[in-house]
Write a structure and sequence with these properties.
183 residues, alpha/beta, 5-stranded parallel sheet, 4 helices, acyltransferase, repeat, Mac_dom
């Protein structure tokens, strides 16, 4: 039996992003995002209920301030006490896991979507994803960019505007483009 493009996507394999099932999921998420982003003035508890409609997991006491943007939502798991400030973007073609009490500044982008290096595969509309895992009690400064496949250890700090291209060790502080540990 042939696997669906969604199954391939979730497995991190090459998949056709134009697939009808995936396009329908993107459309459903866009509709949900319109509702969620219009809820800025509603109480945090009500916004958390909206998040639970679409995200894989939303821990107790977590807040995502609108506007917020994502691809699918169903690949995002947020621990307890997590805070995402305004204008965060999560491209979640595969799993994005954010640990308890992590704080994420405004304008942060977390990207799992990647593209083949082979031009013929790109031209054919194929993509793939690599999961992003962010540990507990991490602080990510505003405007940081977390690239596909990165794991950030517990208690790490990501400086504002940093571009994180590699894994970050537990307790490390990284800054810059590409992000490098502070000595």
């Amino acid at each position: 039996m042939e696997r669906s493009e969604k199954d391939k996507m979730l497995a991190g394999e090459l998949y056709d992003a134009g697939d009808a099932e995936l396009q329908a999921a993107l459309a459903a998420t866009r509709d949900w995002l319109v509702r969620y982003n219009a809820a800025l003035a509603t109480p945090t508890r009500e916004r958390r209920m909206l998040l639970a409609e679409r995200l894989a997991a939303v821990g107790e006491g977590s807040t995502i301030r609108p506007p917020f943007h994502c691809d699918y939502g169903f690949n995002i798991s947020v621990g307890a006490g997590v805070f995402l400030n305004f204008n965060c973007v999560i491209l979640d073609v595969v799993a994005v896991t954010i640990g308890d009490r992590t704080q994420i500044g405004p304008g942060v982008q977390i990207l799992t979507a990647d593209h083949p290096r082979d031009p013929a595969q790109r031209e054919a509309g194929l993509e793939f994803g690599r999961p992003v895992t962010i540990g507990r009690n991490v602080w990510i400064g505003g405007g940081a960019l977390i690239l596909p496949g990165v794991t950030i250890g517990d208690d790490a700090i990501i400086g504002a505007g940093s571009v994180v291209t590699r894994d970050v060790a537990t307790g490390a502080t990284v800054v810059g483009n590409p992000a490098r540990p502070l000595r």
